[in-house]
Amino acid sequence: MLNLLMDPNTQWVLFGTTLLGITSGVLGSFALLRRQSLIGDAMSHAALPGICIAFLITGEKMMGALLLGAGISAYIGTYCIQAIVRHTRLKMDTAIGLILSVFFGVGIVLMTFINRLPSGNQSGLDEFIFGQAAAMVSGDVRVIAIVAVILLVITLLLFKELKLLIFDREFAQGLGLPTTVLNGLLMTMIVTAVVIGLQAVGVVLMAAMLIAPPITARYWTNRLDHMVIISGLVGALSGGLGTFISAPITGMPTGPLIVVSACTLFLISLVIAPERGLFVKAWRLYQLRKRTAQEQILQSLYERTEEQYEKTETIDAFSREALEALRPLSDFRFKKAVANLQKSGDVEAYKNGYSLTLSGCERAHRVTLNNRLMQMYAMHELQFASLPMEHYNWDFLSIPEDDRNSLDHLLKEHQLQPKLLHRLPETERINR
Amino acid sequence: MNPITANNITVAYHRKPVLQSVSFEAPEGKLIGIIGPNGAGKSTLLKSILGLVPKASGDVNIYGKTYRKQRQIVGYVPQRGSVDWDFPTSALDVVLMGRYRQIGLFRRPKKNDVKEAMSCLEKVGMEQYANRQISQLSGGQQQRVFLARALAQNAHIYFMDEPFIGVDAATEKAIVQLLSELREQGKTVIVVHHDLQTVKDYFDWVMLLNVRKIAFGPTNETFTSDLLQKTYGGKLTFLDQKEEEGVPFA
Amino acid sequence: MTYTFWILLTASLVGISCGIVGVLLILRKMAMLSDAISHTVLLGIISSYLITNSLDGFYMFIGAAIVGVLTTVFVQLLNSAGVQSDAAIGVVFTFLFAIGVILVSMFARDVHIDVEHSIMGEIAFIPWMTVDWFGIEGIPQAVWMLGFVLIIDLFLILLLYKEFKLSSFDPGLAAALGLPVGLLHYVLMGMTSITAVASFDAVGAILVVAMLIAPGATAYLLTERLHMMFILSAVFGVIAAVTGYFIAAWLNASIAGMMATMAGVLFLLAFIFSPTHGIIAKRFSQRKIQQVDIET
């Protein structure tokens, strides 16, 4: 194993695939955010006829010429997709599928011509279909490295312009940015990233290199700059891992292993990522359901008690029916929530129903207040449009004082402020 | 028995509540408008009643049974933008779709169904467009085709999501005509509506909705400036103007 | 029965069955899902070989159909987990295809599952791979399978015509009317899978996408009627297949590649010359509108 890693050929391959991973990861981020992931798939397939034509013209496997041919025909394919969507009622997905399969078909036809040429049998063009990273030689890697560096430098220099372009093209135009040029440049850069990856990963699987690293990165961050960096790292890691695993096994194709590594990294992130991962999401949903049920019971109890205290100045227990009339819950949820509330000492069960304890009364007060503030907020959403409620987790008790005061004022106006807690006389509170 | 009884409907996207504990009982044979500001959850309320969005809590009964059991008596007119009008099909064909349940799984439409669909098209004044491809119809005509399709369902309760949006005056008139016809037949119609000016003319009952139900009742009792203020908060400026102009609003 | 006859029959069967299934895929905006399915068929074939240890067409057929449907299930799962749909498709199919390629190169190097073959298909060998089924001799296996699949496709589309129509046009209403929308989706995915598998031998994984999408897309530019779209799509499928074969024979080039190319050429013709949706007709009607504007 170590011997193999010391082998200069393997080192070149490793270097090449890692670089490819970085570039496709970085540029794939932009494609993903524009919801154009599958265009990469179309580009790589559409590159095939260009490769063949370049070979037919030059008559030999000249890397530069092949890449140029690939780029041109991938570009034409992309243009065709856009033309179809613009001029007909066909939708994007149909246009992509149509172009990628038809261009690939043309490529296959051209390939049969090449295979009949005397030099064709050794042309090695087949490796563009499935990729053959192991066959990369130092010359190929040098070409890849130069192109990759150029792509990365352009991305770095134009980062904020590209960011604005994918986020809000019209606004970018309004700012006077040359959006058409930028858009063309971005497309060209994505095409280039696809083209240099073809030799290693192949036409069929290239799409994965543009898609898997960025969606993996998306799970770990909400910021574009971080996403682009993480995506590049994920791409590099998958490129390296795939090469590393496949190198010692004879006959093991590198491209598919790179793709499997990238997809595995994605699947892992999908499950365990903080905030967006499935585990965390499921846990949060469970907590939310549990809390909502408890809060609904607390608020119903509070409102019933409030109502009664207003009339009779006494406090009583309330039956499940009386609570259900305000906010019905399923049998299972009700029992479970009540059991939890009893355990936390917020609710006591009596023969004739349920009643709030002192601490329960305070908690119910907070819940009720928060929900009623939410109502005020919803009714006057425009007035509070600048209040970042997501940031406060929709907890109105933690918002700045000014906003809180105006919401309180509204509550008073609608006579909705929760009164129970403050009305209960001290003795009543203790001697129940 | 009430055509619709809704209990404690709560819908939330992520953590943001869209509907909060909405409960109501709709009376039979009335035209009912649901009004409220943008983002108040009007369409969401319809969709949650029809089971098209998941509810966080609550249940809905149609004539005392679950919606699943009563589908055959419920008609739904979605927003016009919700379908692809490039679909290769004719106006008559779209109306026929309303009868698919009566026709039954695996069966083809019979002459009778076609005749029925045709008469529904006539009711909305679209009979001469029966064979027109749907993308060649104007917005108002498309809306009328949707209404004809709902008629073809021959339901007892109709739900309509913003049927008046983006239609011409003729279509608006046709829809109003149709609504009162449905009421005469004793059907219950619930319409999501945004134009406050026309509420009093179009609906017998209104629900004021803003995440939670603000009020629900006969229009002349419910559509009051006080309750509207409560629903729209400070956003409702035209109300004051109206009152200044001396137009009695409540 | 001559060699050419069998090839033309196979190609036509591919054209018809892909053509009619493709119409539904296009109208439901699921064209790329068919691309995904056609790729993952490879994994189905190699898995069924590894499990049964035989190259029996029937087992492969079942294996591929199962993986095809699984592909759509995975895409749906990722979708509901919040992954945007195009990325979900892209990840699922490349992942499954990559696993397929790895399995082939690890366990099945020496058998007749050639990855290249699976991509490009080899219709030229089909007339020689005959089987004796139901006591009838000398009919190629691919023809049996394609005929069988075509009958299933036709049967299901005729049986569920109006259900497919409504659930494609307005899934909301279809659900509200109580149509089994989810089931219809998986029926269509099943049809796509078996059609892709049966066509696989003839045209390969990627070119089957051309046969699925291009004829339907061409028909979409020429008609306003759904049933007509099915008929035209099937006809274009056959035309592409037959002309593709003859041109390929004449140029001595890949038959499957040429079939896909011809499907593309037919689309290009419709794109330019369609009386209703072609760019010439559109230019013309635009000019007319401009003239009217000037006159008035």
From TrEMBL, chain A:
Keyword Nucleotide-binding: no
GO cellular component: a single term: ATP-binding cassette (ABC) transporter complex
Membrane topology: Multi-pass membrane protein
SUPFAM superfamilies: ABC transporter involved in vitamin B12 uptake, BtuC
Intracellular or extracellular location(s): Cell membrane
Role of this protein: This protein is probably a component of a manganese permease, a binding protein-dependent, ATP-driven transport system.
Protein's UniProt name: Manganese transport system membrane protein MntC
Automatic annotation (TrEMBL), chain B:
Keyword vocabulary terms for this entry: ATP-binding, Nucleotide-binding, Transport
Family to which this protein belongs: Belongs to the ABC transporter superfamily.
Gene3D superfamilies xref list: P-loop containing nucleotide triphosphate hydrolases
Protein source organism: Geomicrobium halophilum
A Gene Ontology molecular function term of the record: ATP hydrolysis activity
InterPro entries listed in its UniProt record: AAA+_ATPase, ABC_transporter-like_ATP-bd, ABC_transporter-like_CS, Metal_Ion_Import_ABC, P-loop_NTPase
Name of the protein in question: Manganese/zinc/iron transport system ATP-binding protein
Domain ABC transporter: 4-236
Signal sequence residues: none
Automatic annotation (TrEMBL), chain C:
SUPFAM superfamilies: ABC transporter involved in vitamin B12 uptake, BtuC
Keywords, in A-Z order: Cell membrane, Membrane, Transmembrane, Transmembrane helix, Transport
InterPro entries: ABC_BtuC-like (IPR037294), ABC_TroCD (IPR001626)
Pfam families the record matches: ABC-3
Gene Ontology, cellular component aspect: ATP-binding cassette (ABC) transporter complex
Localisation per UniProt entry: Cell membrane
Transmembrane segments annotated in the record for this chain: 6-26, 57-75, 87-108, 142-161, 173-196, 202-222, 229-251, 257-280
Origin superkingdom: Bacteria
Main location (coarse class): membrane
Topology term for the membrane: Multi-pass membrane protein
One GO process term, biological-process aspect: transmembrane transport
Coiled coil regions, renumbered to chain: none
Record family assignment: Belongs to the ABC-3 integral membrane protein family.
Protein name: Manganese/zinc/iron transport system permease protein
Origin species: Geomicrobium halophilum
